[in-house]
Amino acid sequence: MADRDVVLEVNDLHTYFFNRRGVTKAVDGVSFSIREGETLGIVGESGCGKTMTALSLLRLVPKPAARIVSGEIILDGEDLVQMSNSEMRDVRGRKISMILQDPQTSLNPVFTIGNQLTEALGAHGRSGRRETWDKAVQALRNVRVAAPERRLEDYPHQMSGGMKQRVIGAIAVSASPKVIIADEPTTALDVTIQLQYLRLLKEIQAETGLAIIFITHDFGIVARMCDRVAVMYAGRIVEQADVRDLFNKPLHPYTQALMDSVPKMDRTDRLFAIDGQPPPLWDLPEGCRFAPRCGQARDICLTGYPAVTNHENNHLAACWMHHPEWNTGPE
User: Which residue, 20, 25, 72, 235, has most beta carbons within 10 Å?
Assistant: First the structure.
């Protein structure tokens, strides 16, 4: 993996909402990179900033309330933050795409699958109608849709949830992007269809060298799909590591708490739950944002946010326990 090129690099990204409550820091200094053919998982509780990070990468934050305040999104050597709206329209789909959570709301119910797929293809090419239709057929065939010629004539309501999610995948990869963001794409699918869809994504990735950012709550999916994992909490990445290192030795108390919350088949006692609630993003504490819910917190955790430390194998964590001050300050 190390010899592959970095296709996307995010540096100190800040996306804020400006409303009557003040400033809501939905994404507050997020940094990561992803290489060709790699899958990066982003995990964390609801409201931690996962989806807003994804929308920021596509420059699709809800306006006028939200805007990217600062940071860089370097895709294929270009900074997307500095691009105009017309330039971004050319980048979306062609270089970076997104598979949304619910296929039912991602497809227009009054247009056929063929209409919607050929529209996506036509936005990034100058092929004739026949050639575009043939490409649409091939796009459905690539995501293992049976009888693609007939399916192009169908409307979304004539398809199952799993089939609609395959169509969304076909639209996302139709222009051969370098990066795909999959925002909880299996949430609306049953368990057996989930497995088929995950296997399909891996097959497409192996064939094309696609880089995938996979947003999920499910650590089982993380273990199956991802090469590296970024754990988000209250708008920031608190830990980032190779998937094996993260599972074998989580360094941040929040990561440990998330893993303890996963039900285990051999556990008969009460399920573990993280006490308290995440802080409101318009009124964040000065110190570590997880400190009020952390059973290991000390005074130092409440007074300043910890710098990110780099451990073995580029295992990154933002926690005071891994700083020299931890053993010298008062408990």
Answer: 235
| CA nearest to 51, candidates 143, 246, 181, 238 | 181
Least confident of 163-167, 177-181, 192-196, 236-240: 192-196
CA distances from 295 to 264, 276, 301, 318 (A): 22, 11, 11, 16
Residue 306's domain spans which residues?
6-95+177-327
- For the entire predicted model, the pTM comes to 0.91
Confidence check: pLDDT of 194 > 90? no
CATH number, domain of 216, equals 3.40.50.300
Does a structural domain hold residue 321? yes
Residues 6+ apart with CB under 8 A from 269: none
From residue 223, give the alpha-carbon distance in Å to each of 34, 48, 232, 326. 17, 21, 17, 31
Residue pair 174/127 in contact (Cβ under 8 Å)? The answer is no
Sign of CA dihedral 6, 47, 320, 274: negative
State the Cα–Cα distance between residues 208 and 185, nearest whole angstrom. Answer: 19
